[in-house]
Amino acid sequence: MEFTRQDFPERFLFGVATSAYQIEGHGFGGAGQTHWDTFAATPGNVVNGENGALACDHYHRMDEDLDLVAAGNFDVYRFSTSWARVMPEGRGTVNQRGLDFYDRLVDGLLERGLKPALTLYHWELPSPLADEGGWRNRAMGDWFADYVDVVARRLGDRIWSAAPINEPWCVAWLSHFEGHHAPGLRDIRAAARAMHHVLLSHGRAIEVMRGHGMTNLGAVCNFEYAQPVDDSPAAHRAAETYDAIYNRFFLGGLFRGTYPEAALDGLAPYLPVRWDEDFSSIGQPLDWLGLNYYTRKVIGPTGGAWPGYAYLDGPLPKTDMGWEIYPEGLTHFLRLAQDHAQGLPLYVTENGMAAPGLRDEDRLAYINAHLARVRSAIAEGLPVAGYYLWSLLDNYEWALGYDKRFGLVHVDFDTLVRTPKLSYEKLKLALAKS
Ligand code: FCB
Protein backbone atom coordinates (compact mmCIF):
# COMPACT_ATOMS: atom_id res chain seq x y z
CA MET A 1 0.00 0.00 0.00
CA GLU A 2 1.13 3.54 -0.67
CA PHE A 3 -0.51 4.70 2.57
CA THR A 4 -0.84 3.76 6.17
CA ARG A 5 -3.44 4.75 8.70
CA GLN A 6 -0.99 7.38 9.97
CA ASP A 7 -1.34 9.31 6.69
CA PHE A 8 -4.97 10.07 7.56
CA PRO A 9 -6.48 12.19 10.33
CA GLU A 10 -6.51 10.49 13.69
CA ARG A 11 -10.27 9.87 13.74
CA PHE A 12 -10.55 8.79 10.11
CA LEU A 13 -12.29 5.41 9.86
CA PHE A 14 -11.57 2.50 7.55
CA GLY A 15 -14.22 -0.08 6.88
CA VAL A 16 -15.40 -2.96 4.74
CA ALA A 17 -18.90 -3.35 3.38
CA THR A 18 -21.17 -6.29 2.51
CA SER A 19 -24.90 -6.75 2.03
CA ALA A 20 -27.32 -9.38 3.28
CA TYR A 21 -28.55 -11.03 0.07
CA GLN A 22 -25.07 -11.05 -1.45
CA ILE A 23 -23.43 -13.06 1.33
CA GLU A 24 -25.81 -14.57 3.87
CA GLY A 25 -27.52 -17.44 2.10
CA HIS A 26 -31.14 -16.43 1.81
CA GLY A 27 -32.34 -20.04 1.82
CA PHE A 28 -31.69 -20.36 5.55
CA GLY A 29 -33.35 -19.32 8.76
CA GLY A 30 -36.92 -18.71 7.70
CA ALA A 31 -36.34 -15.80 5.33
CA GLY A 32 -39.23 -15.01 2.96
CA GLN A 33 -39.12 -14.93 -0.83
CA THR A 34 -37.81 -11.73 -2.42
CA HIS A 35 -38.00 -10.15 -5.85
CA TRP A 36 -34.34 -11.11 -6.37
CA ASP A 37 -35.24 -14.80 -5.98
CA THR A 38 -37.88 -14.58 -8.68
CA PHE A 39 -35.88 -12.25 -10.92
CA ALA A 40 -33.04 -14.79 -10.78
CA ALA A 41 -35.43 -17.67 -11.46
CA THR A 42 -36.49 -16.01 -14.71
CA PRO A 43 -34.18 -17.11 -17.52
CA GLY A 44 -32.02 -14.41 -19.04
CA ASN A 45 -31.92 -12.06 -16.06
CA VAL A 46 -28.89 -13.33 -14.13
CA VAL A 47 -25.72 -14.95 -15.44
CA ASN A 48 -26.11 -18.73 -15.04
CA GLY A 49 -29.47 -18.13 -13.35
CA GLU A 50 -27.62 -17.83 -10.04
CA ASN A 51 -29.32 -16.58 -6.88
CA GLY A 52 -28.54 -15.80 -3.26
CA ALA A 53 -29.93 -18.99 -1.71
CA LEU A 54 -26.49 -20.10 -0.48
CA ALA A 55 -24.18 -17.18 -1.43
CA CYS A 56 -21.19 -17.19 0.95
CA ASP A 57 -23.14 -19.06 3.65
CA HIS A 58 -22.33 -16.15 5.94
CA TYR A 59 -25.47 -17.09 7.90
CA HIS A 60 -23.54 -20.07 9.25
CA ARG A 61 -20.03 -18.62 9.05
CA MET A 62 -20.59 -15.23 10.61
CA ASP A 63 -17.99 -15.63 13.34
CA GLU A 64 -15.25 -16.54 10.89
CA ASP A 65 -16.19 -13.56 8.72
CA LEU A 66 -16.26 -11.09 11.60
CA ASP A 67 -12.86 -12.41 12.69
CA LEU A 68 -11.59 -11.50 9.21
CA VAL A 69 -12.91 -7.95 9.57
CA ALA A 70 -11.24 -7.56 12.94
CA ALA A 71 -7.95 -9.17 11.89
CA GLY A 72 -7.86 -6.89 8.84
CA ASN A 73 -7.58 -3.95 11.25
CA PHE A 74 -10.75 -2.28 10.00
CA ASP A 75 -12.75 0.03 12.25
CA VAL A 76 -16.20 -0.25 10.71
CA TYR A 77 -18.27 -3.07 9.27
CA ARG A 78 -21.04 -1.90 6.94
CA PHE A 79 -23.73 -4.57 6.56
CA SER A 80 -27.42 -4.74 5.80
CA THR A 81 -30.40 -6.40 7.41
CA SER A 82 -32.68 -8.28 5.05
CA TRP A 83 -36.29 -7.13 5.19
CA ALA A 84 -37.52 -10.58 4.14
CA ARG A 85 -35.41 -12.30 6.79
CA VAL A 86 -36.85 -10.05 9.50
CA MET A 87 -40.42 -10.01 8.10
CA PRO A 88 -40.89 -12.88 5.63
CA GLU A 89 -44.15 -11.42 4.28
CA GLY A 90 -42.79 -7.88 4.30
CA ARG A 91 -45.45 -6.91 6.83
CA GLY A 92 -46.87 -8.33 10.02
CA THR A 93 -45.21 -11.43 11.39
CA VAL A 94 -41.64 -11.07 12.58
CA ASN A 95 -39.20 -13.96 12.11
CA GLN A 96 -37.51 -14.00 15.50
CA ARG A 97 -34.72 -16.23 14.22
CA GLY A 98 -33.88 -13.53 11.68
CA LEU A 99 -33.74 -10.80 14.29
CA ASP A 100 -31.70 -13.07 16.57
CA PHE A 101 -29.16 -13.52 13.78
CA TYR A 102 -28.68 -9.76 13.43
CA ASP A 103 -28.56 -9.39 17.19
CA ARG A 104 -25.65 -11.86 17.30
CA LEU A 105 -24.02 -10.05 14.38
CA VAL A 106 -24.13 -6.68 16.15
CA ASP A 107 -22.88 -8.14 19.42
CA GLY A 108 -20.17 -10.00 17.52
CA LEU A 109 -18.98 -6.71 16.04
CA LEU A 110 -18.97 -4.91 19.35
CA GLU A 111 -17.10 -7.76 21.05
CA ARG A 112 -14.40 -7.39 18.41
CA GLY A 113 -14.20 -3.63 18.84
CA LEU A 114 -15.84 -2.95 15.46
CA LYS A 115 -18.41 -0.25 14.71
CA PRO A 116 -21.69 -1.61 13.27
CA ALA A 117 -22.81 0.47 10.27
CA LEU A 118 -26.32 -0.66 9.38
CA THR A 119 -28.14 -0.38 6.06
CA LEU A 120 -31.84 -1.23 6.25
CA TYR A 121 -32.46 -1.96 2.56
CA HIS A 122 -29.88 -3.35 0.18
CA TRP A 123 -32.28 -4.48 -2.52
CA GLU A 124 -34.02 -7.76 -1.63
CA LEU A 125 -37.65 -6.62 -1.47
CA PRO A 126 -40.06 -9.17 0.05
CA SER A 127 -42.15 -10.67 -2.78
CA PRO A 128 -45.58 -9.93 -1.25
CA LEU A 129 -44.70 -6.21 -1.37
CA ALA A 130 -43.41 -6.56 -4.93
CA ASP A 131 -46.84 -8.08 -5.75
CA GLU A 132 -48.40 -4.81 -4.62
CA GLY A 133 -46.18 -2.75 -6.88
CA GLY A 134 -43.14 -2.48 -4.63
CA TRP A 135 -41.41 0.87 -5.02
CA ARG A 136 -44.12 2.04 -7.43
CA ASN A 137 -46.53 2.06 -4.52
CA ARG A 138 -46.57 5.03 -2.18
CA ALA A 139 -47.50 2.69 0.68
CA MET A 140 -43.87 1.54 0.65
CA GLY A 141 -43.23 4.47 2.98
CA ASP A 142 -45.49 2.94 5.63
CA TRP A 143 -44.34 -0.64 5.08
CA PHE A 144 -40.69 0.35 5.24
CA ALA A 145 -41.27 2.47 8.36
CA ASP A 146 -42.86 -0.54 10.10
CA TYR A 147 -39.93 -2.79 9.22
CA VAL A 148 -37.39 -0.17 10.29
CA ASP A 149 -39.28 0.17 13.56
CA VAL A 150 -38.87 -3.57 14.24
CA VAL A 151 -35.14 -3.48 13.52
CA ALA A 152 -34.58 -0.26 15.44
CA ARG A 153 -36.30 -1.63 18.55
CA ARG A 154 -34.09 -4.69 18.56
CA LEU A 155 -30.72 -3.32 17.40
CA GLY A 156 -30.96 0.46 17.69
CA ASP A 157 -29.23 0.71 21.07
CA ARG A 158 -26.00 -0.81 19.68
CA ILE A 159 -25.79 0.52 16.12
CA TRP A 160 -22.98 3.01 15.43
CA SER A 161 -24.43 4.44 12.21
CA ALA A 162 -27.45 3.71 10.06
CA ALA A 163 -28.66 4.51 6.54
CA PRO A 164 -32.10 3.49 5.32
CA ILE A 165 -31.52 2.61 1.67
CA ASN A 166 -28.44 1.66 -0.32
CA GLU A 167 -28.12 3.50 -3.64
CA PRO A 168 -31.49 5.01 -4.57
CA TRP A 169 -30.43 5.20 -8.23
CA CYS A 170 -30.00 1.42 -8.44
CA VAL A 171 -33.20 0.74 -6.52
CA ALA A 172 -35.21 3.04 -8.78
CA TRP A 173 -33.62 3.73 -12.16
CA LEU A 174 -31.47 0.65 -12.80
CA SER A 175 -34.31 -1.61 -11.69
CA HIS A 176 -37.37 0.17 -13.13
CA PHE A 177 -36.08 2.00 -16.20
CA GLU A 178 -33.07 0.02 -17.41
CA GLY A 179 -34.50 -3.29 -16.21
CA HIS A 180 -31.12 -4.72 -15.21
CA HIS A 181 -32.00 -5.42 -11.58
CA ALA A 182 -35.13 -6.77 -9.90
CA PRO A 183 -37.96 -6.20 -10.59
CA GLY A 184 -36.58 -5.82 -14.13
CA LEU A 185 -38.99 -3.17 -15.37
CA ARG A 186 -38.39 -0.81 -18.26
CA ASP A 187 -41.07 1.78 -17.71
CA ILE A 188 -40.65 5.50 -17.23
CA ARG A 189 -43.67 5.91 -14.99
CA ALA A 190 -42.56 3.05 -12.76
CA ALA A 191 -39.08 4.58 -12.59
CA ALA A 192 -40.30 8.08 -11.73
CA ARG A 193 -42.51 6.77 -8.96
CA ALA A 194 -39.79 4.53 -7.58
CA MET A 195 -37.31 7.45 -7.52
CA HIS A 196 -39.69 9.54 -5.45
CA HIS A 197 -40.96 6.76 -3.18
CA VAL A 198 -37.44 5.62 -2.35
CA LEU A 199 -36.72 9.09 -1.00
CA LEU A 200 -40.05 9.27 0.80
CA SER A 201 -39.29 5.94 2.45
CA HIS A 202 -35.82 7.15 3.38
CA GLY A 203 -37.35 10.11 5.19
CA ARG A 204 -39.88 7.98 7.02
CA ALA A 205 -37.13 5.61 8.15
CA ILE A 206 -35.00 8.46 9.49
CA GLU A 207 -37.97 9.72 11.50
CA VAL A 208 -38.60 6.28 12.96
CA MET A 209 -34.97 5.78 13.94
CA ARG A 210 -34.72 9.23 15.51
CA GLY A 211 -37.86 8.37 17.45
CA HIS A 212 -35.97 5.46 18.96
CA GLY A 213 -33.10 7.72 19.95
CA MET A 214 -30.75 6.39 17.29
CA THR A 215 -27.98 8.78 16.25
CA ASN A 216 -25.46 9.07 13.42
CA LEU A 217 -28.06 8.60 10.68
CA GLY A 218 -27.24 9.18 7.03
CA ALA A 219 -27.93 8.37 3.40
CA VAL A 220 -25.88 6.34 0.93
CA CYS A 221 -26.03 7.40 -2.73
CA ASN A 222 -24.03 6.14 -5.67
CA PHE A 223 -22.33 8.35 -8.22
CA GLU A 224 -20.91 7.95 -11.71
CA TYR A 225 -19.05 10.68 -13.50
CA ALA A 226 -20.76 11.67 -16.75
CA GLN A 227 -18.14 12.18 -19.46
CA PRO A 228 -19.53 13.67 -22.71
CA VAL A 229 -18.10 11.69 -25.62
CA ASP A 230 -17.09 14.87 -27.44
CA ASP A 231 -17.49 18.62 -27.31
CA SER A 232 -20.73 18.80 -29.22
CA PRO A 233 -23.68 20.52 -27.51
CA ALA A 234 -25.70 17.33 -28.02
CA ALA A 235 -23.12 15.23 -26.14
CA HIS A 236 -23.02 17.78 -23.32
CA ARG A 237 -26.80 17.79 -23.08
CA ALA A 238 -26.86 14.00 -22.95
CA ALA A 239 -24.23 13.93 -20.19
CA GLU A 240 -26.12 16.61 -18.28
CA THR A 241 -29.30 14.54 -18.39
CA TYR A 242 -27.43 11.46 -17.22
CA ASP A 243 -25.80 13.45 -14.42
CA ALA A 244 -29.16 14.88 -13.33
CA ILE A 245 -30.83 11.48 -13.12
CA TYR A 246 -27.93 9.59 -11.61
CA ASN A 247 -26.05 12.04 -9.41
CA ARG A 248 -28.21 15.07 -8.68
CA PHE A 249 -31.76 13.82 -8.37
CA PHE A 250 -31.35 12.16 -4.98
CA LEU A 251 -29.01 14.81 -3.57
CA GLY A 252 -31.55 17.42 -4.68
CA GLY A 253 -34.36 15.62 -2.90
CA LEU A 254 -32.36 15.05 0.27
CA PHE A 255 -30.72 18.45 0.61
CA ARG A 256 -32.44 21.03 -1.63
CA GLY A 257 -36.11 20.18 -1.48
CA THR A 258 -36.37 19.84 -5.25
CA TYR A 259 -35.27 17.79 -8.22
CA PRO A 260 -32.96 19.05 -10.99
CA GLU A 261 -34.65 20.55 -14.05
CA ALA A 262 -32.79 18.27 -16.44
CA ALA A 263 -34.40 15.27 -14.69
CA LEU A 264 -37.85 16.86 -14.37
CA ASP A 265 -37.80 17.57 -18.13
CA GLY A 266 -38.62 13.92 -18.70
CA LEU A 267 -39.89 12.68 -15.35
CA ALA A 268 -42.36 15.36 -14.25
CA PRO A 269 -45.39 13.89 -16.08
CA TYR A 270 -44.89 10.57 -14.34
CA LEU A 271 -44.16 11.60 -10.76
CA PRO A 272 -46.92 10.99 -8.22
CA VAL A 273 -49.40 13.82 -7.68
CA ARG A 274 -48.26 16.52 -5.24
CA TRP A 275 -44.75 15.07 -5.19
CA ASP A 276 -43.44 18.54 -4.44
CA GLU A 277 -45.23 18.54 -1.09
CA ASP A 278 -43.17 15.62 0.24
CA PHE A 279 -39.85 17.34 0.74
CA SER A 280 -40.34 18.18 4.39
CA SER A 281 -40.56 14.46 5.00
CA ILE A 282 -37.77 13.54 2.56
CA GLY A 283 -35.38 16.20 3.81
CA GLN A 284 -35.05 15.01 7.40
CA PRO A 285 -31.85 16.39 8.90
CA LEU A 286 -28.99 13.93 8.47
CA ASP A 287 -25.71 13.39 10.32
CA TRP A 288 -23.59 12.24 7.39
CA LEU A 289 -23.64 11.47 3.69
CA GLY A 290 -22.23 8.29 2.16
CA LEU A 291 -20.87 8.05 -1.39
CA ASN A 292 -20.49 4.82 -3.30
CA TYR A 293 -18.12 5.43 -6.17
CA TYR A 294 -16.66 3.08 -8.79
CA THR A 295 -16.42 4.53 -12.29
CA ARG A 296 -17.46 7.00 -14.95
CA LYS A 297 -19.59 6.58 -18.06
CA VAL A 298 -18.84 8.00 -21.49
CA ILE A 299 -22.11 9.45 -22.70
CA GLY A 300 -23.33 10.29 -26.16
CA PRO A 301 -26.67 11.47 -27.56
CA THR A 302 -29.10 9.03 -29.17
CA GLY A 303 -31.22 11.59 -30.99
CA GLY A 304 -34.19 9.59 -29.69
CA ALA A 305 -36.75 10.02 -26.93
CA TRP A 306 -35.89 11.35 -23.47
CA PRO A 307 -33.52 10.73 -21.71
CA GLY A 308 -31.76 10.51 -25.08
CA TYR A 309 -28.35 9.29 -23.94
CA ALA A 310 -26.34 6.17 -24.70
CA TYR A 311 -23.43 4.55 -22.87
CA LEU A 312 -20.37 4.37 -25.11
CA ASP A 313 -17.15 2.45 -24.80
CA GLY A 314 -14.46 4.52 -23.08
CA PRO A 315 -10.68 4.54 -23.56
CA LEU A 316 -9.50 4.11 -19.94
CA PRO A 317 -8.29 0.84 -18.35
CA LYS A 318 -11.26 -1.21 -17.16
CA THR A 319 -12.03 -3.52 -14.27
CA ASP A 320 -13.49 -6.99 -14.69
CA MET A 321 -16.92 -5.33 -14.74
CA GLY A 322 -15.89 -3.41 -17.85
CA TRP A 323 -15.96 -0.25 -15.71
CA GLU A 324 -13.38 2.43 -16.52
CA ILE A 325 -11.00 3.29 -13.69
CA TYR A 326 -11.38 7.00 -13.06
CA PRO A 327 -10.26 8.11 -9.57
CA GLU A 328 -10.64 11.79 -10.54
CA GLY A 329 -14.39 11.25 -10.37
CA LEU A 330 -14.17 10.65 -6.63
CA THR A 331 -12.74 14.14 -6.12
CA HIS A 332 -15.54 15.59 -8.24
CA PHE A 333 -18.24 13.85 -6.20
CA LEU A 334 -16.73 14.63 -2.81
CA ARG A 335 -16.96 18.29 -3.85
CA LEU A 336 -20.52 17.87 -5.14
CA ALA A 337 -21.47 16.12 -1.91
CA GLN A 338 -20.00 18.96 0.15
CA ASP A 339 -21.94 21.50 -1.96
CA HIS A 340 -25.14 19.75 -0.96
CA ALA A 341 -24.42 18.43 2.51
CA GLN A 342 -22.70 21.65 3.62
CA GLY A 343 -20.23 20.38 6.15
CA LEU A 344 -21.75 17.07 7.14
CA PRO A 345 -19.14 14.32 7.47
CA LEU A 346 -18.72 12.49 4.16
CA TYR A 347 -17.95 8.78 4.01
CA VAL A 348 -16.91 6.80 0.98
CA THR A 349 -19.26 3.95 1.85
CA GLU A 350 -18.24 1.76 -1.13
CA ASN A 351 -15.25 1.67 -3.44
CA GLY A 352 -13.43 -1.26 -4.95
CA MET A 353 -13.04 -3.32 -8.10
CA ALA A 354 -13.85 -6.70 -9.56
CA ALA A 355 -10.68 -8.61 -10.43
CA PRO A 356 -9.80 -12.29 -10.57
CA GLY A 357 -7.01 -13.99 -8.66
CA LEU A 358 -5.45 -14.00 -5.22
CA ARG A 359 -2.44 -11.81 -6.02
CA ASP A 360 -4.63 -8.84 -6.83
CA GLU A 361 -2.06 -6.14 -7.53
CA ASP A 362 -4.59 -4.37 -9.76
CA ARG A 363 -7.01 -4.06 -6.86
CA LEU A 364 -4.24 -2.60 -4.72
CA ALA A 365 -3.47 -0.03 -7.40
CA TYR A 366 -7.17 0.86 -7.62
CA ILE A 367 -7.43 1.31 -3.86
CA ASN A 368 -4.22 3.34 -3.72
CA ALA A 369 -5.41 5.65 -6.49
CA HIS A 370 -8.76 6.28 -4.82
CA LEU A 371 -7.26 6.73 -1.36
CA ALA A 372 -4.90 9.30 -2.85
CA ARG A 373 -8.03 11.19 -3.95
CA VAL A 374 -9.48 10.91 -0.46
CA ARG A 375 -6.29 12.33 1.00
CA SER A 376 -6.21 15.26 -1.38
CA ALA A 377 -9.88 15.94 -0.67
CA ILE A 378 -9.09 16.11 3.04
CA ALA A 379 -6.15 18.40 2.27
CA GLU A 380 -8.45 20.78 0.40
CA GLY A 381 -10.71 20.90 3.43
CA LEU A 382 -13.50 18.51 2.53
CA PRO A 383 -14.91 16.76 5.60
CA VAL A 384 -14.18 13.16 4.54
CA ALA A 385 -14.41 11.04 7.66
CA GLY A 386 -14.06 7.47 6.43
CA TYR A 387 -13.49 5.06 3.55
CA TYR A 388 -15.01 1.58 3.22
CA LEU A 389 -14.01 -1.09 0.74
CA TRP A 390 -16.48 -3.05 -1.29
CA SER A 391 -16.21 -5.85 -0.34
CA LEU A 392 -15.02 -8.12 2.44
CA LEU A 393 -15.81 -11.29 0.48
CA ASP A 394 -16.31 -12.34 -3.11
CA ASN A 395 -20.09 -12.50 -3.31
CA TYR A 396 -23.28 -12.55 -5.36
CA GLU A 397 -22.80 -9.67 -7.79
CA TRP A 398 -26.51 -9.39 -8.61
CA ALA A 399 -27.28 -9.88 -12.33
CA LEU A 400 -23.67 -10.94 -12.88
CA GLY A 401 -23.92 -13.84 -10.45
CA TYR A 402 -20.77 -15.19 -8.79
CA ASP A 403 -18.34 -14.46 -11.63
CA LYS A 404 -17.31 -10.96 -10.64
CA ARG A 405 -14.99 -10.99 -7.67
CA PHE A 406 -14.99 -7.84 -5.53
CA GLY A 407 -13.67 -9.44 -2.32
CA LEU A 408 -10.55 -8.68 -0.34
CA VAL A 409 -11.06 -12.29 0.67
CA HIS A 410 -11.52 -15.00 -1.95
CA VAL A 411 -14.46 -17.37 -1.59
CA ASP A 412 -14.40 -20.80 -3.22
CA PHE A 413 -18.09 -21.20 -4.04
CA ASP A 414 -17.83 -25.01 -4.04
CA THR A 415 -16.20 -25.43 -0.63
CA LEU A 416 -17.02 -21.94 0.77
CA VAL A 417 -13.45 -21.73 2.03
CA ARG A 418 -12.26 -18.16 2.56
CA THR A 419 -8.72 -17.18 1.52
CA PRO A 420 -7.41 -13.66 2.12
CA LYS A 421 -6.04 -12.06 -1.04
CA LEU A 422 -2.90 -9.95 -1.30
CA SER A 423 -5.03 -6.79 -0.99
CA TYR A 424 -6.39 -7.98 2.36
CA GLU A 425 -2.89 -8.68 3.69
CA LYS A 426 -1.54 -5.33 2.51
CA LEU A 427 -4.47 -3.39 3.90
CA LYS A 428 -4.11 -5.21 7.19
CA LEU A 429 -0.51 -4.01 7.46
CA ALA A 430 -1.37 -0.47 6.35
CA LEU A 431 -4.24 -0.17 8.82
CA ALA A 432 -2.39 -1.51 11.86
CA LYS A 433 -2.97 0.70 14.89
CA SER A 434 0.42 1.59 16.25
C1 FCB B 1 -22.89 -1.38 -5.69
C2 FCB B 1 -23.76 -2.20 -4.76
C3 FCB B 1 -23.08 -3.42 -4.20
C4 FCB B 1 -22.20 -4.09 -5.22
C5 FCB B 1 -21.26 -3.09 -5.84
C6 FCB B 1 -20.29 -3.67 -6.82
O1 FCB B 1 -23.70 -0.70 -6.60
O2 FCB B 1 -24.17 -1.41 -3.67
O3 FCB B 1 -24.08 -4.27 -3.71
O4 FCB B 1 -22.97 -4.74 -6.15
O5 FCB B 1 -22.00 -2.09 -6.48
Description:
- It is a single chain.
- With 434 residues, the chain is α/β, with parallel strands linked by helices.
- It has helices spanning 20-23, 35-40, 58-71, 83-86, 96-111, 127-131, 140-155, 168-176, 188-211, 233-256, 261-267, 279-282, 328-341, 361-379, 422-430, and strands at 13-17, 76-80, 115-121, 161-165, 218-228, 288-301, 309-312, 346-350, 384-390, 409-411, 418-420.
- The chain has a domain at 95-351 and 361-387 and 421-430: Alpha-Beta Barrel (TIM Barrel).
- 40% of the residues lie in helices and 16% in strands.
- The structure holds beta-D-fucopyranose.
List strands and helices in order, with pairings.
Blueprint: E1 13-17, H1 20-23, H2 35-40, H3 58-71, E2 76-80, H4 83-86, H5 96-111, E3 115-121, H6 127-131, H7 140-155, E4 161-165, H8 168-176, H9 188-211, E5 218-228, H10 233-256, H11 261-267, H12 279-282, E6 288-301, E7 309-312, H13 328-341, E8 346-350, H14 361-379, E9 384-390, E10 409-411, E11 418-420, H15 422-430
Parallel strand pairs: 1-2, 1-9, 2-3, 3-4, 5-6, 6-8, 8-9
Antiparallel strand pairs: 6-7, 10-11
Helix pairs in contact: 3-5, 7-9, 8-9, 13-14
Bound molecules: beta-D-fucopyranose.
Key structural traits:
434 residues, TIM Barrel, 9-stranded mixed beta sheet, two-stranded antiparallel sheet, 15 helices, binds beta-D-fucopyranose
